[in-house]
Structure formats: structure tokens, C-alpha cells
Write a structure and sequence with these properties.
By secondary structure, the chain is α/β, with parallel strands linked by helices. The protein has 16 helices and 12 strands.
Length: about 475
């Protein structure tokens, strides 16, 4: 059965991960004491002397099981076929950061850090990270190819033909590496023999128990339509009786088009319609700390550029240097967003009601250059340090446009569940300035529901390498 295969695969991964830790440790030892030719210990200058190897080798007794436990905590022994590669790499990255931190702290506590090479700990952390990512990538390729060729597949049957069933079949057929082999559909509304993309209706829902007794199935996937949820209790009871692993695909994609998650409210399941990682205080605290640290560094680094902008604005156009504009931020609260003034001075009414367009006569010559290179956005670093904004997040809009868009675009107001940002997922994917608002919001929602430190770092790098010059800024 597939569950036994998954258990074996997980055990193999544990052994391989432990082996990678040992190999990384030996590589770090070699780099530090052979390549760099450093003294291994105060009483030995020979790197492979028995006493030196014993001194450094006994640390592996704690390091190997410690890292395996960390990998378990970060969910690296789940089902690889469906787990995302980015999530797996993120788990490896953070497990290794914590592992190196714990190793360093442990050595300090037992007063052994003086004799233990700090360089070796650094080399070990880097080596182990590289080896683990390589090992898991090769493992993923092998598993995917095996699944594509029909090995280690999960035999599954769907109960109910609905929109959820169609979407599941589409995804399974598009992703053979997941390893599902759909045996058919049980449904009460379609004729037996009805077929969707090669998957046939083979019986009625009341035949589920007899079908389970007659066939060796690995999974039952419940895909009943919303109008058929009165059958859910009977279907679940039948699957539980058989002991076959059961999954449930809710048929609400046309009602709730996002990723909900469930909480335990003293035994009562509470479904949150949307998963917003930044609503958890730990995630919000990490992001805020990043904003303060990186925002301070950015302010120092860009201060010479900002000084040049101040002088150029003053010399080329009469009026104030900083332009303050009301925008809508976290929890729909308005705030004053700072920018270098790039236009001629306007009345409040003119500024509030007009969107900048190509060839806009209000934009000054130096202002046009600043807008093209995003230099006019630099004062928003102050907004970040104040807490009005974040370095990364959905771009904030003016109140007038918020009122307009929330009536026209479904889920538009969800973007205000997080702090607005100087740059974001939409902007690094080309949706900046005078671009379509709907795909921009789709990218914002993706960011909100899939936030991670790794995604923020990715957006920062994309902004540095591709995001400063804006062809849609007028």
C-alpha cells in the first residue's frame, strides 16, 4: 500500500539527512583544518590525529539527532509529491539557521566555544545547507519521475461529481508527479459511464462500502457538491469503517475563492475563510523587525542619493521638497505617505481626483526622471520606520480610488489586512504605475496568503535587480 511506501521513503530520508549532516561536518573540518591549516586543538597540530578527531567527532552525537528533529519540526518528512519545493527549501534554510544557532549557544553554555573553531561552525552551516538542498532536489526528481512512470501510485476514487471534482481531476492530470491514479467516480446525478477527461462514473454513492470491500484502494477523495452535503456523514462513516485514508475537497471555490484554514475552538472546528500568515503575532513581529533593521540600513545607504534629489528639486521647481499624500493602510486606516515632489504644485482638489497619465504636463523634468527610477519613493523609508508601511507589501491607494475599487473588484479590501509596502509582488511582476488593477490585486492577494520571510527576500532581490526602473511611471 502507498502509506507503507511513504513510511519507507521517510525512513530513507532520515538516513540520508543524517548522512548529509555527517558529510557536511567532515567537509567543514577539512576546510578549516586541512585547507586553512589551522591548529585543531591546543595540544595537537595534526588535523587527523586521533585525539583531534575524537574531540570534534563526539559533537556529532548531539548534532545528527538534533538536526533530524529540527527537520521533523519543519515538516520535511511529509509527502514530497504534493509539498511545494519552495516550502521545502524554506524549511531546510530555517532549520539550519536554528541548528547553527543552537550549536553555537550550546558550546558557549558548556564553556567549550574557546576550543571549538567558529570558522568550522560557519563552514558546517553552509555545507549542510548546500548538501541538504542538493539531496532533496535529487530525491524530488527521482520521486517525480517514478510517479510519472506509474510506480508508487495512490489508487483513489472520487465520491461526487462537482466543480471540486472537475478541478481536482484537472490538477491531477496536469501533475502526474503527484502519483494519483484515479479509478473512477461515484455519483448519483450522472449516468454510469459518463466520462470527464477519461475518468468515468462507475457507480452510485451507496455502493461505496461494497466497492471498498472488493477493491484495494489507497484513498477516497470526497468531492460532493454543496447540495449533496446531507450525504457527507454516511460517506465519511463508510470510509472510516474501511480504514482507507480519506481526503475532502470542499465544493466552495465559487463561493470562497481563497485558502481557508481550520482552528480548534475547544473541540469545535473554526474555519477561517482566508489564511493571512501576517495576522499571527510571531510572523508580524519578524516582519516588523526586518522593516526596522533593513529600513535603517536603507536610509543610511540612500541618504547621499536623497540629498542630491533634495538639491535638484529645489533648483528645478518652486515649491516644497516633500509631497505628502493621504493613502489607506493597515485596517483601512488613512496615513500620510511621503514622496519627493515630482510635479508642479497643485490644489488639493486637482491632486485628489486625477491619476497621472503618459505625457502629464504636471510632471517636472527632474520629477519624470525620479518617477522612472523610483527615486521619488525613497522618503517612504520614513513611513516604514514609523510603522505606517512595510518595505514589502501591497501598494497603498488614495481614499477616492479605494472607495471606487472596493465596489468594482471583489476582495479588493483584503489588501488592507497587512501593512502597505514600498514594493510588492505585483510591482516586481510588472504591475506598476498605469497598469490593470485586477491582475495587480490578484498578485497582492497571492502575497498576502503566501507570505514568508523567503518570499520577502525574493521580492527585495527582484526589486534591486529589476524593479527600480518603471516603464509605466509617467
Amino acid at each position: 500500500m502507498i502509506n507503507d511506501g511513504q513510511k519507507i521513503l521517510n525512513r530513507i530520508h532520515v538516513l540520508l539527512d543524517a548522512l548529509m549532516v555527517v558529510i557536511a561536518y567532515l567537509c567543514a573540518y577539512t576546510m578549516r583544518f586541512v585547507v586553512q591549516k589551522a591548529e585543531t586543538y591546543q595540544w595537537s597540530e595534526e588535523p587527523f590525529a586521533p585525539e583531534a578527531l575524537m574531540y570534534y567527532g563526539r559533537a556529532l552525537i548531539f548534532i545528527v539527532p538534533g538536526y533530524v528533529i529540527l527537520y521533523m519540526i519543519f515538516g520535511l518528512y511529509g509527502h514530497k509529491s504534493i509539498a511545494g519545493r519552495r516550502r521545502e527549501i524554506s524549511g531546510i534554510f530555517f532549520a539550519n539557521i536554528i541548528g547553527v544557532s543552537m550549536l553555537t549557544t550550546g558550546l558557549y553554555i558548556i564553556k567549550n566555544s574557546y576550543f571549538f573553531s567558529g570558522y568550522m561552525i560557519f563552514y558546517f552551516g553552509m555545507s549542510n545547507l548546500c548538501f541538504m538542498i542538493t539531496e532533496r532536489s535529487i530525491s524530488r526528481i527521482i520521486i517525480f519521475e517514478s510517479n510519472r512512470r506509474g510506480k508508487n501510485q495512490k489508487k483513489a476514487i472520487l465520491v461526487g461529481f462537482s466543480g471540486a471534482a472537475r478541478e481536482l481531476i484537472d490538477r491531477v492530470l496536469d501533475n502526474p508527479q503527484w502519483g494519483f491514479r484515479l479509478q473512477g467516480i461515484l455519483d448519483d446525478n450522472k449516468e454510469i459511464g459518463f466520462e470527464y477527461k477519461g475518468i468515468k462514473v462507475v457507480g452510485r454513492t451507496e455502493e461505496l462500502e461494497s466497492l471498498l470491500e472488493a477493491n484495494q484502494l489507497d484513498e477516497i477523495i470526497i468531492t460532493l457538491g454543496l447540495s449533496e452535503y446531507n450525504k457527507l456523514a454516511h460517506v465519511v462513516a463508510s470510509t472510516e469503517k474501511s480504514g482507507v485514508h480519506t481526503r475532502f475537497v470542499p465544493d466552495y471555490s465559487n463561493v470562497i475563492p481563497t485558502s481557508p484554514f481550520t482552528e480548534d475552538l475547544q473541540g469545535l472546528p473554526l474555519i477561517n475563510i482566508r489564511h493571512v500568515p501576517l495576522m499571527e503575532w510571531t510572523n508580524a513581529s519578524i516582519k516588523r523587525a526586518m522593516d526596522i533593521i533593513l529600513g535603517t540600513i536603507a536610509l543610511i545607504l540612500f541618504s547621499p542619493v536623497m540629498l542630491i534629489c533634495v538639491i535638484a528639486i529645489k533648483l528645478t521647481s518652486p515649491g516644497p521638497i516633500i509631497f505628502c499624500q493621504e493613502r489607506v493602510g493597515l485596517h483601512n486606516r488613512p496615513f500620510k505617505m511621503y514622496k519627493f515632489r515630482s510635479m508642479t504644485v497643485q490644489t488639493d482638489e486637482e491632486e485628489k481626483t486625477q491619476w497621472t497619465t503618459k505625457g502629464d504636463a504636471r510632471v517636472t523634468k527632474f520629477g519624470g526622471l525620479m518617477r522612472k527610477t523610483s527615486l521619488d519613493e525613497l522618503p517612504q523609508i520614513i513611513n516604514v520606520l514609523k510603522g505606517d508601511m512595510s518595505l514589502i507589501g501591497p501598494r497603498p491607494e488614495r481614499p477616492l480610488f479605494v472607495e471606487k475599487f472596493k465596489e468594482e473588484i471583489p476582495r479588493y479590501m483584503v489588501k488592507h489586512q497587512v501593512r502597505p509596502g514600498m514594493t510588492g509582488w505585483a510591482q516586481v511582476n510588472g504591475y506598476r504605475g498605469d497598469t490593470e488593477i485586477k491582475p495587480r490585486i490578484e498578485h497582492d492577494l497571492y502575497y498576502i496568503e503566501n507570505w514568508s520571510v523567503g518570499l520577502d527576500i525574493k521580492i527585495l532581490f527582484m526589486t534591486v535587480f529589476t524593479g527600480f526602473v518603471n516603464k509605466n511611471a509617467y
